[in-house]
Amino acid sequence: MLYSIHLIDSYDKQQDVGSVVPIHPTKKELILQLARDADGEERWVYPDETDSALLLSREIRSYSGTLFDLNYLGTIIIRINMDKIVRKSAGGEGDLIVTSGTDVIYPATPHFDPAVIQSSLSSGNGYLTREMDGHTYFIAHNRSGNTGWTYMNVTPFNQTFKQIIFIKELVIIVFTVIFAVAILLGIRFSRGLTRPIESLIARMKLAEKGNFAEANVLPLDAAPVAMNELGLLHRTFRLMIERINALITENYSNRLLIKETEFKALQAQINPHFLYNTLESVNWLAKMNKQTQISDMVQALAFLLRNSVSLKEPILTLGEELEIVRNYVIIQKFRFEDRLDFTMDVKEQDLQRKIPKLSLQPLLENAIHYALEPSVNPCRITLSCKETPSAFCVIVEDDGPGMAPDTLMQLRSGEMVTSGNGIGLLNIDERIKLAFGEHYGLTIDSGSGLGTRVMLSLPK
């Protein structure tokens, strides 16, 4: 950090070492005079236009042993590189200005004249702000107790807060980005909630208009239903629509069946009063001629016709239905006599149970038609009741020839059409299911040579 060292002896001979810059004679004389006046102390010579180095001068005196005779031996001058000292020691921010009173030690050309603020500097440490040449400066100063020099660190005011302003701007930018991302996520989240709701509302409006088929179909561009509360609501709505649609279809089919049954019953009502009056006349004529068999047959036939044509009570008690069966058997007894062996096993407490009208008489008619008529031998037909854990059962059995397995399968599936003109077995099964539910109905068991067993399952 030294430019050069100059030694001037008592004979005015000069020895130089380092990066030697010639010292002007006038300045050299001034330096020597300052050293003589210092009486052994060092003296500083500050940079000027001719030399930017800081000069330190001091006289050299002699001594012998312990005796200080202080004879003049010469003067030493040291040229110091202030720029290198400052670059090595000072901080990176701001400009360093070193002054001694009004003299500027460093730098050679400061940004402003330090003499302007000398009066504002305190004797110790401190800081202040000054506006000079249109710029505001933050000045921190410190006065050395050894040299009396004042060290000033001059920083532009804006540069002092440059980092703070940068952090502030960075925070604003980050907050803006976070706010924008939050808005986008919020919009996406809200659309994720509103879009399924809007789709569900549109489907509800279709269902309100009765268009259940379209209400149960998702749009082509619809996203997969998520496994959350809205997804559960969508699936529940679809299940509800499917069930409503199935119920409507089932109800429509049942209404068609009822209308068809009513139409067939109306077709059978061909002037019933005329038919009843005619049968009553035949009955009185038979009684007058003492033909009791004809009278009993006519009375049974009139009872059967009256009950089959009447539509007032579609559901009867088991006792009323058995009365129809008894009158039908009376008529068939006159026809088949001893070949028809019919027995009933029904308990008194079961007579009040409910059964659809004309459910048992067609079973007796089928048993006579398929088991008794083709044979010349007597045929046993029984009607009995029993209870199972889930239903009350009425059973009609015969010991006739029975049915082949393929015939039985066709009859169960509804593919086989009966040859008679009465009420078919499928009709009885459908009416029981319509009245009491899908868990009830008619079942058939048969086999070649094993007879036929028809069982009606009714509520307990």
Describe this structure in words.
The protein has 12 helices and 17 strands. The protein is an alpha+beta fold and 460 residues long. A 5-stranded antiparallel β-sheet has the order 2-1-5-4-3, covered by helices on one side.
Question: What best-fitting shape do the alpha-carbon axes yield?
Answer: rod-shaped
Number of strands: 17
- As a percent range, the share of strand residues is 15-25%
Reading side by side through the largest sheet, how are the strands ordered? 2-1-5-4-3
Number of contiguous helices:
12
Head-to-tail CA distance between termini: 120 Å
Radius of gyration: 64 Å
Uncertain regions: pLDDT < 50 for 5+ in a row?
A: none
The secondary-structure class comes to alpha+beta
Indicate the mean pLDDT: 82
Q: Name the helicity range.
A: 40-55%
Biggest sheet details: 5 strands, antiparallel
Helices and strands, in order, run as EEHEEEHEEEEEHHHHHHEHEEHEEHHEE
Offer a concise description of the structure:
The protein is of the alpha+beta class. It has helices at 25-37, 82-89, 157-160, 162-208, 212-215, 229-268, 272-288, 292-309, 318-336, 361-372, 405-413, 425-436; strands at 2-9, 14-18, 43-45, 54-61, 72-80, 95-100, 103-106, 126-132, 135-143, 150-156, 315-317, 340-345, 354-356, 379-387, 392-398, 441-446, 452-458.
